[in-house]
Structure formats: C-alpha cells, structure tokens
Amino acid sequence: MTADAPRNADDFCYRHPDRRSFVLCQRCLRTICPECQTQSAVGVICPECMTAQKQQTPKRVRRAVRRVDSRPLVTYWIVGVTVGFFILGFAFPVVQSLLAFNSAFIDPTTGVPFQPWRIFTVALVHSGFWHVGLNMLAVWLIGRSLEPLLGHGRFLALYVISALGGSTAVALWSTTPFVIGFDNSVVGASGAVFGLLGALLVIGRHIGANITGILIILGINLVIGFIPGFGISWQSHLGGLAVGALLGLIYARTRRADQSVAQNLLVGAVVVALVAACAVPALV
User: What's the pLDDT at 139?
Assistant: First the structure.
C-alpha cells in the first residue's frame, strides 16, 4: 500500500489499528491480527467472541472440559519414581532388601516377620540398568496410549493392582518359600507391565484396534519367561497379565458414566480377591 493510497480501516485489526490483517473473526466478522486470533472448530475468533462463547457454555460442561487432561502424567510419575528408587537402591542396597518380594514375608508359618507391603513395593526394585530400563521403556510406550484412554486414576489403579496380581501369582505358585535374601527374591515391575499389556490387549479388541503387534510382544515375552537360565519370574508375568486383562475387561464393559459405581465395586472385588489369595499358602 502506498502512502497516497486511502486507508481502509476494515483491513486493520480492530484491537490494534496499526496492524494490518485480512483475517476475520468467524463470529463477528471483524478483522483481527495474529495476536488476537484464537483457533476454534469453525476457524479463528476474536477475544471478545471467545469470552462470550465461554459465558454461554454451561458450567457443568466447562468443569468437565477443565477436568480432561490427556497428558500421561501418571506414566511420567511412575517412570520417575521407579528410576529414583533404583538409583536410591543402587547407592544404598539395604533399600532393595526392604522392598523386594519373597513369598515367605506373607506366610506366618515360616517364622519370617510379616511384611505385606512387599507385594506392592516389588515394582520399585530392579536388578540392574537393563532391567529397569526395559521395564520403564515399556511403561512409557504403553502409558502414552493407554493412560489418556483410561484417565489418570484408572491407569494408576491398573498398574498397582497388576503389580499385586504378579505378587499373588508368585505366592500361589511357589511350592516352598524362597530362601530369604535379595538374590532369592522377586524384583521388578514386570507384573505391572504385563498388566498394562493385558489391559491394552482387551481394550484394543473392544474398540476394534489392530492387536496383532501386542500379541506378538506378549508371546515373545511369555516364552522368554519359561526359558531356564534367564532368571525371570514367569509367575509374576502370568499373574500380572491375567489381572490386567480382567481389569481391562471391566473398564471396557463399564465405561458409561452411569456405570462408575459398578466399575468401582468390581475393581474393589478384584483387589479383595487378590489379597485373600495371598493368604492361601499360609492356610494349606
């Protein structure tokens, strides 16, 4: 535009008259510069129209939108906390000894002090860099897809209860209690990781996703767990997988808002059943 050309006010932002623009607000059709543009489903709108739109939106809808957070925050926390405990245990080995799981710690007949917290803390202890690295890589890869789908609370519950399922399977399928000591205890978050895989498998099947890749990964890992010499707890893998698949089925079948109570009751029943099953070796 030359200095002698007439100035057309419609070609300048109505909020910043010194900024030329040819973009119109899709609601009021006034010209707005890039700073004043807000993307919406129908195009860009100006700040005033954005404010009016928010005021017209019912409060319950605004609260629901604010509650939705698709970031896998729980996944990041799980990875961060687990790696932190690994570093702490690497510096102070006694930490690992206090957190590793051994079926003797939940069997009063062995005379070993009763330490039930180990059925959960086992997921925080790992035997080496490769162990914790591969497990946390799996959590990170799966969590980025599964956590936004389930929500933070359900994803965390799935992870923790799957770890419990792995410990329960170890307690049930150990013919005799292990010799006490870190080298003879079960360590790692493999039960929880297999629980995530099991849930992803079931939920993916329900939503029509391609689950071939998941089946291949599961098959390879399960086979490796049965190969002698690898030192892998196949009991923990199978227990976590079974519990994760069960929780995935519960989540998939009770995903409507009016089924939240039923979902919580079913998940609670799974937890109660697993805790009760941990006591079976002490009763037989």
Answer: 92
Q: How far is it, in rounded angstroms, from Cα 21 to Cα 31?
A: 7
Q: Is 185 among the residues known to form the active site?
A: no
pLDDT digits (tens, 9 = 90+) for 52-70: 887 776 665 555 445 556 7
Burial status of residue 217 (CB atoms within 10 A of its CB: 0-12, 13-18, 19 or more): middle
- 19-33, 38-52, 109-123, 142-156: range with highest mean pLDDT: 142-156
Mean pLDDT of all residues in 68-90:
89
**pTM across the whole model:** 0.71
The SS3 of residue 114 is coil
**Is the model's pLDDT at 182 over the cut of 50?**
no
> Where do the H-state alpha helices sit in 152-259?
152-172, 190-206, 212-225, 234-253
**Better-predicted residue by pLDDT, 113 or 68:** 113
196 and 244 Cβ atoms separated by less than 8 Å? yes
Q: Is 190 a catalytic residue?
A: yes
The domains found in the chain, sorted by start residue, are 1-48 (no CATH), 73-283 (1.20.1540.10)
Name the phi and psi angles at 57, rounded to 5. Answer: -75, 130
Given the residues 103, 185, 190, 236, select the one marked as catalytic. 190
In the block, tokens 């702490």 appear at 88
Helices (H), the chain: 47-56, 59-67, 73-91, 93-99, 118-121, 129-150, 152-172, 190-206, 212-225, 234-253, 260-278, 280-283
| Predicted pLDDT at 178 | 46
Q: What tokens does 48 get?
A: 């005033």
Q: Which residues pair with 40 in a beta bridge?
A: 43
Largest CA distance in the chain: 99
- Burial-class residue 114 by CB neighbours within 10 Å (0-12, 13-18, 19+): exposed
Q: Look over the chain and give the mean of its residue pLDDT values, rounded to a whole number.
A: 81
